[in-house]
Design a protein that fits this description.
With about 90 residues, the chain is mainly alpha-helical. Helix content is about 50%, strand content about 0%. It is elongated, with a radius of gyration of 25 Å.
Length: about 90
């Protein structure tokens, strides 16, 4: 059976059948981000992107954020401690 006929019977576009995903080129970027994040743990993805741009490697901000989150990186946030007062009634 031809590809055209099979796709027509299934209701699928022929271009979808021929689709081949591109090899993922994010592994090198991921390793570089992890290395930079360990050197500078207080830098977020934007600052790391600036560092990469200074070295001549400009990266799309959406791709940078996607790889940054997939690597499990994030800036550690300090939670604000609540003051507990004993014997004082709360309003409301």
């Amino acid at each position: 059976m031809s590809e055209r006929r099979a796709c027509g019977l299934l209701g699928v576009c022929r271009s979808s059948c021929r689709y081949r995903c591109k090899p993922d080129g994010n592994e090198r970027l991921r390793e570089q981000l992890i290395e930079l994040a360990h050197e500078r743990p207080r830098f977020g993805y934007r600052r790391l992107g600036v560092l990469r741009a200074r070295e001549g490697q400009h990266i799309n901000h959406k791709r940078l954020f996607r790889v940054y989150r997939a690597a499990g990186l994030s800036v550690k946030r300090n939670r604000r401690k609540k003051l507990v007062r004993v014997g004082v009634s709360q309003p409301g």
